[in-house]
Amino acid sequence: MAIYGIIGAMDSEVQNLIARMTDTRPVEVAGRLFTQGKLAGQHVVVVKSGIGKVAAAITAQMLVDRFGVTALINTGMAGGLDTRLAVKDLVVATGAVQHDFDLTAFGHAPGYMHGEDDSRPTVFEADKALCHLALAAAEQVLPAGSKAITGTIASGDIFVDDSDLKAHIIRQFDAAATEMEGAAIAQTACANGVPFAILRVISDLAEHQANVSFDELEVYAGQLAGDITVAMLKA
Ligand code: ADE
Q1: How are the residues of the chain apportioned to helix, strand and coil, as percentages rounded to the nearest 5?
Q2: Ligand 1: does its nearest atom lie under 6 Å from the Cβ of 4?
Protein backbone atom coordinates (compact mmCIF):
# COMPACT_ATOMS: atom_id res chain seq x y z
CA MET A 1 0.00 0.00 0.00
CA ALA A 2 1.33 3.42 -0.94
CA ILE A 3 1.59 5.88 1.95
CA TYR A 4 2.73 9.42 1.18
CA GLY A 5 4.63 11.31 3.86
CA ILE A 6 4.03 15.01 3.28
CA ILE A 7 6.33 17.50 5.00
CA GLY A 8 6.06 21.27 5.27
CA ALA A 9 8.26 23.37 7.51
CA MET A 10 5.61 25.80 8.72
CA ASP A 11 1.93 25.83 9.66
CA SER A 12 1.12 27.80 6.50
CA GLU A 13 2.53 24.90 4.48
CA VAL A 14 0.62 22.05 6.15
CA GLN A 15 -2.54 23.35 7.83
CA ASN A 16 -4.47 23.70 4.59
CA LEU A 17 -3.69 20.04 3.81
CA ILE A 18 -4.66 18.77 7.25
CA ALA A 19 -7.95 20.70 6.97
CA ARG A 20 -8.83 18.71 3.84
CA MET A 21 -7.99 15.26 5.25
CA THR A 22 -10.50 12.64 6.33
CA ASP A 23 -10.19 9.73 8.79
CA THR A 24 -7.54 11.71 10.65
CA ARG A 25 -5.48 10.12 13.42
CA PRO A 26 -3.07 12.62 14.97
CA VAL A 27 -0.04 11.27 16.85
CA GLU A 28 2.58 13.37 18.60
CA VAL A 29 6.14 12.09 18.54
CA ALA A 30 9.33 14.02 19.34
CA GLY A 31 7.45 17.29 19.50
CA ARG A 32 5.91 16.83 16.07
CA LEU A 33 2.26 16.29 15.28
CA PHE A 34 1.94 13.58 12.63
CA THR A 35 -1.57 13.52 11.12
CA GLN A 36 -2.35 10.16 9.53
CA GLY A 37 -5.42 9.83 7.34
CA LYS A 38 -6.67 10.17 3.79
CA LEU A 39 -6.20 13.02 1.35
CA ALA A 40 -7.50 12.98 -2.22
CA GLY A 41 -8.17 9.24 -1.87
CA GLN A 42 -4.58 8.41 -0.83
CA HIS A 43 -3.15 7.28 2.47
CA VAL A 44 -1.01 10.12 3.81
CA VAL A 45 0.83 11.31 6.89
CA VAL A 46 1.12 15.10 7.02
CA VAL A 47 3.57 16.77 9.40
CA LYS A 48 5.12 20.15 10.15
CA SER A 49 8.85 19.53 10.50
CA GLY A 50 9.95 22.94 11.71
CA ILE A 51 12.46 25.04 9.81
CA GLY A 52 15.87 23.85 8.67
CA LYS A 53 17.72 20.78 7.47
CA VAL A 54 18.12 18.99 10.80
CA ALA A 55 14.43 19.35 11.73
CA ALA A 56 13.47 18.16 8.25
CA ALA A 57 15.80 15.14 8.31
CA ILE A 58 14.59 14.02 11.75
CA THR A 59 11.00 14.29 10.56
CA ALA A 60 11.60 12.47 7.29
CA GLN A 61 13.36 9.58 9.03
CA MET A 62 10.48 9.27 11.50
CA LEU A 63 8.00 9.14 8.64
CA VAL A 64 9.93 6.22 7.18
CA ASP A 65 10.62 4.35 10.43
CA ARG A 66 7.47 4.87 12.44
CA PHE A 67 4.82 5.48 9.80
CA GLY A 68 6.12 3.28 6.99
CA VAL A 69 5.71 5.90 4.28
CA THR A 70 6.60 4.72 0.79
CA ALA A 71 7.24 8.18 -0.70
CA LEU A 72 8.14 11.61 0.63
CA ILE A 73 6.69 14.87 -0.67
CA ASN A 74 8.04 18.22 0.48
CA THR A 75 5.73 21.15 -0.16
CA GLY A 76 5.94 24.84 0.62
CA MET A 77 7.72 28.01 -0.43
CA ALA A 78 11.10 28.91 -1.86
CA GLY A 79 13.14 31.89 -2.93
CA GLY A 80 13.45 32.12 -6.71
CA LEU A 81 16.95 32.03 -8.25
CA ASP A 82 16.29 31.20 -11.92
CA THR A 83 15.78 34.47 -13.83
CA ARG A 84 12.61 33.03 -15.43
CA LEU A 85 10.92 32.87 -12.05
CA ALA A 86 8.54 35.41 -10.52
CA VAL A 87 6.71 35.22 -7.22
CA LYS A 88 3.70 32.85 -7.34
CA ASP A 89 5.47 30.54 -9.84
CA LEU A 90 6.28 26.92 -8.99
CA VAL A 91 9.53 24.95 -8.98
CA VAL A 92 9.42 21.16 -9.11
CA ALA A 93 12.79 19.72 -8.14
CA THR A 94 14.71 17.48 -10.49
CA GLY A 95 17.18 17.12 -7.62
CA ALA A 96 18.40 18.83 -4.48
CA VAL A 97 21.78 20.00 -3.15
CA GLN A 98 22.92 21.44 0.18
CA HIS A 99 24.45 24.81 -0.63
CA ASP A 100 25.96 25.28 2.85
CA PHE A 101 27.71 21.88 2.94
CA ASP A 102 31.37 22.84 2.61
CA LEU A 103 34.37 20.49 2.39
CA THR A 104 36.28 22.86 0.12
CA ALA A 105 39.12 22.84 2.69
CA PHE A 106 39.85 19.31 1.43
CA GLY A 107 39.73 20.29 -2.23
CA HIS A 108 36.17 19.08 -2.83
CA ALA A 109 33.61 21.13 -4.74
CA PRO A 110 31.13 23.18 -2.68
CA GLY A 111 28.18 20.94 -1.78
CA TYR A 112 30.14 17.73 -2.39
CA MET A 113 29.30 15.06 0.21
CA HIS A 114 30.18 11.66 -1.19
CA GLY A 115 30.61 9.76 -4.42
CA GLU A 116 33.43 9.37 -6.89
CA ASP A 117 33.37 12.78 -8.55
CA ASP A 118 34.33 15.39 -5.98
CA SER A 119 34.45 18.14 -8.59
CA ARG A 120 30.65 18.53 -8.40
CA PRO A 121 28.10 19.02 -5.63
CA THR A 122 26.21 15.94 -4.45
CA VAL A 123 22.76 16.12 -6.01
CA PHE A 124 20.00 13.88 -4.65
CA GLU A 125 17.82 12.97 -7.63
CA ALA A 126 14.06 13.36 -7.28
CA ASP A 127 11.70 10.65 -8.48
CA LYS A 128 10.87 11.26 -12.14
CA ALA A 129 7.32 9.90 -11.97
CA LEU A 130 6.43 12.06 -8.95
CA CYS A 131 8.06 15.07 -10.63
CA HIS A 132 5.93 14.44 -13.71
CA LEU A 133 2.76 14.16 -11.59
CA ALA A 134 3.58 17.43 -9.82
CA LEU A 135 4.02 19.23 -13.15
CA ALA A 136 0.76 17.84 -14.51
CA ALA A 137 -1.01 18.91 -11.30
CA ALA A 138 0.50 22.39 -11.59
CA GLU A 139 -0.85 22.72 -15.10
CA GLN A 140 -4.36 22.14 -13.78
CA VAL A 141 -4.09 24.28 -10.67
CA LEU A 142 -1.78 27.24 -11.37
CA PRO A 143 -3.71 30.44 -12.09
CA ALA A 144 -3.15 32.37 -15.33
CA GLY A 145 0.08 34.32 -15.09
CA SER A 146 1.89 31.72 -12.98
CA LYS A 147 4.13 29.04 -14.45
CA ALA A 148 5.93 25.90 -13.37
CA ILE A 149 9.54 25.05 -14.13
CA THR A 150 11.81 22.19 -13.12
CA GLY A 151 15.30 22.55 -11.71
CA THR A 152 17.68 21.98 -8.87
CA ILE A 153 16.64 23.08 -5.39
CA ALA A 154 19.48 24.35 -3.19
CA SER A 155 18.81 24.02 0.54
CA GLY A 156 20.71 25.52 3.45
CA ASP A 157 20.21 26.70 7.00
CA ILE A 158 19.86 30.33 5.98
CA PHE A 159 17.05 32.50 4.70
CA VAL A 160 18.65 34.03 1.61
CA ASP A 161 17.96 37.75 1.36
CA ASP A 162 21.29 38.91 -0.02
CA SER A 163 22.23 39.34 -3.68
CA ASP A 164 25.82 38.18 -3.21
CA LEU A 165 24.77 34.91 -1.55
CA LYS A 166 22.07 34.47 -4.20
CA ALA A 167 24.68 34.93 -6.96
CA HIS A 168 27.00 32.45 -5.22
CA ILE A 169 24.29 29.77 -5.02
CA ILE A 170 23.35 30.25 -8.67
CA ARG A 171 27.00 30.14 -9.78
CA GLN A 172 28.03 27.12 -7.70
CA PHE A 173 24.90 25.01 -7.95
CA ASP A 174 23.02 26.21 -11.03
CA ALA A 175 19.95 26.09 -8.79
CA ALA A 176 16.44 27.25 -9.69
CA ALA A 177 15.29 27.99 -6.14
CA THR A 178 16.51 28.01 -2.56
CA GLU A 179 14.86 26.94 0.67
CA MET A 180 15.82 25.32 3.96
CA GLU A 181 14.61 21.69 4.05
CA GLY A 182 14.27 19.99 0.67
CA ALA A 183 17.78 18.57 0.28
CA ALA A 184 17.73 17.16 3.82
CA ILE A 185 14.49 15.34 3.04
CA ALA A 186 16.05 14.24 -0.24
CA GLN A 187 19.13 12.87 1.51
CA THR A 188 16.95 10.98 3.99
CA ALA A 189 14.76 9.62 1.20
CA CYS A 190 17.79 8.40 -0.75
CA ALA A 191 19.37 6.83 2.36
CA ASN A 192 16.18 4.80 2.82
CA GLY A 193 15.55 4.01 -0.85
CA VAL A 194 12.28 5.96 -0.79
CA PRO A 195 11.25 8.12 -3.78
CA PHE A 196 10.77 11.84 -3.14
CA ALA A 197 9.43 15.01 -4.71
CA ILE A 198 9.86 18.67 -3.77
CA LEU A 199 7.39 21.29 -4.96
CA ARG A 200 7.79 24.89 -3.93
CA VAL A 201 5.86 28.03 -4.74
CA ILE A 202 8.07 31.10 -5.12
CA SER A 203 7.44 33.52 -2.26
CA ASP A 204 10.36 35.90 -2.91
CA LEU A 205 13.42 36.34 -5.07
CA ALA A 206 16.05 35.64 -2.37
CA GLU A 207 17.41 39.19 -2.34
CA HIS A 208 16.89 42.49 -0.51
CA GLN A 209 13.43 42.59 1.14
CA ALA A 210 12.86 38.86 0.54
CA ASN A 211 11.54 38.67 4.10
CA VAL A 212 8.85 41.26 3.29
CA SER A 213 7.80 39.39 0.16
CA PHE A 214 7.79 36.10 2.09
CA ASP A 215 5.53 37.52 4.80
CA GLU A 216 3.13 38.99 2.23
CA LEU A 217 2.87 35.79 0.19
CA GLU A 218 3.12 33.15 2.91
CA VAL A 219 -0.59 32.33 3.16
CA TYR A 220 -1.20 32.47 -0.61
CA ALA A 221 1.87 30.40 -1.48
CA GLY A 222 1.24 27.82 1.24
CA GLN A 223 -2.32 27.35 0.01
CA LEU A 224 -1.26 27.12 -3.65
CA ALA A 225 1.46 24.56 -2.86
CA GLY A 226 -1.19 22.61 -0.94
CA ASP A 227 -3.62 22.75 -3.87
CA ILE A 228 -0.95 21.40 -6.22
CA THR A 229 -0.06 18.63 -3.75
CA VAL A 230 -3.71 17.57 -3.54
CA ALA A 231 -4.07 17.57 -7.35
CA MET A 232 -0.91 15.47 -7.54
CA LEU A 233 -2.32 12.92 -5.08
CA LYS A 234 -5.58 12.76 -7.05
CA ALA A 235 -3.62 11.89 -10.17
N1 ADE B 1 12.00 29.96 1.66
C2 ADE B 1 11.31 30.89 0.98
N3 ADE B 1 12.12 31.89 0.58
C4 ADE B 1 13.37 31.58 1.02
C5 ADE B 1 14.62 32.23 0.95
N6 ADE B 1 14.76 33.39 0.33
N7 ADE B 1 15.68 31.62 1.52
C8 ADE B 1 15.53 30.44 2.16
N9 ADE B 1 14.36 29.79 2.28
C10 ADE B 1 13.28 30.35 1.71
Answers
A1: 35, 30, 35
A2: no
Rounded to the nearest 5°, which phi and psi values hold at 142? -60, 135
Cα–Cα nearest to 16, from 186, 235, 228, 233: 228
Comparing CA positions, the residue from 27, 126, 10 lying closest to residue 68 is 27
Does pTM surpass 0.70? yes
Instruction: Report the candidate in 19, 147, 2, 13 with the shortest Cα–Cα distance to residue 85.
Output: 147
Give dist(CA 69, CA 111) in Å, integer: 28
Q: Is the CB of 179 under 6 A from ligand 1?
A: yes
Ligand 1 contact via 204 beta carbon (within 6 Å): yes
Cβ neighbours of 85 (radius 10 Å) = 21
pLDDT tens, 43-98? 999 999 999 999 999 999 999 999 999 999 999 999 999 999 999 999 999 999 99
Q: Is 204 a residue of the active site? A: yes
Centroid of ligand 1 to alpha carbon of 235 (angstroms): 28
Residue 174 annotated in active site: no
Which one of 89, 161, 179, 204 is the catalytic residue? Answer: 204
Which of 53, 74, 179, 181 is the pocket-test mutation for ligand 1 (most atoms within 8 Å of CB)? 179
The pLDDT tens digits of the residues spanning 159-217 come to: 999 999 999 999 999 999 999 999 999 999 999 999 999 999 999 999 999 999 999 99
Q: Is the CB of 222 under 6 A from ligand 1?
A: no
